[in-house]
Amino acid sequence: MKASDFHVPVACAPRLRPEGPYGLLPRALPIREVCRENYRILTFVLDDDLPEARPGQFVMVWLPGHKEAPFSLAYHRPIALTVAGVGPLTKAMHRLGPGDVLWLRGPYGHPFTPESGSQHPLLVGGGYGVAPLAFLAEHLRAVGQQPVAFIGGRTAEDIIGVARLEALGVPVFVTTEDGSKGEAGLVTHPVSRFLAEGRGDALYGVGPHGMLRALARLAHTHRVPAQLSWEAYMGCAMGLCGMCEHDGVLLCVEGPVRRVIP
Amino acid sequence: MKQPADVDLSITLCGVRLPNPFVLASGILGTSETLLEKAARLGAGAVTAKSAGLHPRAGHENPIVVDWGGGLINAVGLPNPGAHREAEVLAEAKARLAPLGVPLIASIFGGTPEEFAEVARIVLAARPDILEVNISCPNVHDEYGEPFAASCAGAVSVVEAVRPLCPIPLFVKLAPNVPNVGRIAADVVAAGADGITAINTMPGMVIDVESGRPVLTNRSGGLSGPALKPIAVRCVYEIAQAVPDVPIIGTGGVTTGNDAAEMIMAGATAVGVGSAVYYRGLDLFRPLCEELAAVVRHHGAKRVEQLRGLAHRSHGVPWKENKL
Ligand SMILES: Cc1cc2nc3c(=O)[nH]c(=O)nc-3n(C[C@H](O)[C@H](O)[C@H](O)COP(=O)(O)OP(=O)(O)OC[C@H]3O[C@@H](n4cnc5c(N)ncnc54)[C@H](O)[C@@H]3O)c2cc1C
Ligand SMILES: Cc1cc2nc3c(=O)[nH]c(=O)nc-3n(C[C@H](O)[C@H](O)[C@H](O)COP(=O)(O)O)c2cc1C
Ligand code: FES
Fold first, then answer.
1. Tell me: the pLDDT tens digits for A113-166?
2. Where are the strands (E) in B188-267, listed by range?
3. Does A240 contact B295 at a Cβ distance shorter than 8 Å?
């Protein structure tokens, strides 16, 4: 018996332990800048980077005295979060300005990964779901792909994120339900047209579940791979509490981005 | 489940066979038949459901769990759908687990011994294989007061209420923060408990220095993960000394096969796995089995049972004579 036998190999690769400096306790980060996107959505730019974070990942944001909730990374260098004021936490966040502090832990979750073999990915967003699309577009362009973006909303006021995408050289198609900007109707219409014309070979979607289900059907019909980011109520974000379960999948670790295979 | 061929990892808890000693701990993955089945398919030897009470509860507001470096701290606050819905989930879970040969452990809590009995009666209809009474949750103190596990009399009162109506093995989940855990174990066994699960989390607090506030919404919480392991190993050791023939599910900080071997050498028959699901992912059970098998093999043994209590037998014995 050798000494090396005695040390049982401990294959303790801490796979789920988030990488990066904010993986552990929530860390206080100063707000550098707050940009208004529209009447209900603000983007917070923080005074720090998460260089390892990938598009599609999220952080848990805590305001002491309020609760903690998940937000997608709109950017990682510096950290940016695009936040819709919908309830107590997000409305409290909207009252903050430069020099105030947000507490973050993360990044968590399974990110978007560029589909190999795709040249013309279609990026689809609705509401604050547009937030991570520019981050994703930058990633896809870096591997030589030519993304096109589709942004949907109820009215012209609901459309955000167009300038950031266009600044990256990404063509943007806008739809509104009332026709006040871009094409009238649902965002899935131009996406469906692009797929039918063979002008798209992969789908990436962030937005309401109804939109994601429609995109999954389109991906199936047109036999292209799709990566969709599903939101669920999240508790721990660490794969322990089970609160984010959706059809047997823990969305905080096995999502939020799930791949639909054609 | 496929086992390491030359080593027998199977064990029995009061006649209930487990293909391996690794038990998904209560509260991990919540209450979901789908997730319990998933853990079983990924190689758990048994699965424990989240503790259920009589009435539905929402649990505490986020933050409910954080990683403070040496381990985790949680105050989830026992969210659960109430005993009646729990019984439906357990029945479905049982139907899915039975063909896999993986036993189901139900876990219950209550505010009084009578409430424990009421919840037990309702969930036993789902025919779980083992019933675990959680008398040791540290995170609902505001509503329930001091846990029953804090005193012999409290612990015994729950066992006396549940035992008469429980036809299956009855395990009692004990707390680490008591002066003499061995005596509490001895008393609950004398009152009719068949086994002990040890330990629940250790009360603790983490304060955010920037805001001057406790990080958890519940302010205090329970420590789990690596920091808990030496505390758990010592509790299991003391319990095994107090009630040598009673099976123990040794729980607290087990993250590797080595950790599991420590628990078993301290006197545990089975090993609970909770926080490690965060550190290693839900597919950790098969690697854990491989790692534990390597320890068994290293000791020249064929069955994991042979390691049980080794630390007691080694006491005062020079190393070379400390044989299995
Ligand atoms: C992976 C993921 C990424 C997200 N990214 C963004 C983002 O980039 N920008 C953004 O504005 N919002 C995002 N959200 C939603 C955001 O977490 C909620 O809007 C926020 O929790 C609302 O809190 P509140 O107190 O302001 O409102 P509440 O009144 O508490 O809730 C408003 C809505 O948010 C949902 N919600 C509340 N708590 C949680 C929680 N812990 N987890 C998930 N949903 C919750 C509620 O079901 C309700 O529909 C994301 C959610 C998830 C799961
Ligand atoms: C998020 C979380 C929730 C828990 N919920 C329960 C519960 O409902 N009932 C219970 O008896 N123990 C509960 N526990 C305690 C565990 O079952 C276990 O005893 C403890 O975490 C120590 O084991 P570990 O270090 O492997 O996590 C919970 C632990 C965690 C981390
Ligand atoms: S949020 Fe707790 S398991 Fe996903």
1. 999 999 999 999 988 889 899 999 999 999 999 999 999 999 999 999 999 999
2. 195-198, 202-205, 207-208, 213-214, 220-224, 248-251
3. no
Q: Quick one: what percent of chain B has pLDDT higher than 70?
A: 97
Cα–Cα distance for residue pair B303/B267, rounded to 1 Å: 15
* Residue A51 near chain B (CB below 8 Å): no
Chain B's closest residue to A21, CA to CA, is B69
Instruction: Check residue B203 and give its pLDDT.
Output: 95
Strands of chain A (E only): list them.
27-36, 41-46, 58-62, 68-72, 75-76, 79-84, 101-108, 121-126, 148-153, 172-176, 183-184, 202-206, 226-229, 245-246, 249-250, 257-260
Q: Is the ipTM of this complex over 0.90?
A: yes
Contacts of B76 in chain A (CB under 8 A): 235-236, 241
Contacts of A22 in chain B (CB under 8 A): none
Q: What was the pLDDT predicted at A260?
A: 86
CB nearest A67 (choices: B61, B65, B68): B61
Would A5 be classed as within a structural domain? no
Same domain as A135, residue A44: no
Please state which CATH number belongs to domain B11-314.
3.20.20.70
Say if residue A211 is in the same domain as residue A118: yes
Q: What angle do CA A7, A11, A15 make, to 5 degrees?
A: 150
Contact at 8 Å (CB) between B291 and B276? no
CB contact, 8 Å: B283 with chain A? no
> Which CATH number is A203's domain given?
3.40.50.80
Domain ranges, residue A102:
10-108
Give the mean pLDDT of A221-231.
95
Q: Which residue of A has its CA nearest to B31?
A: A242
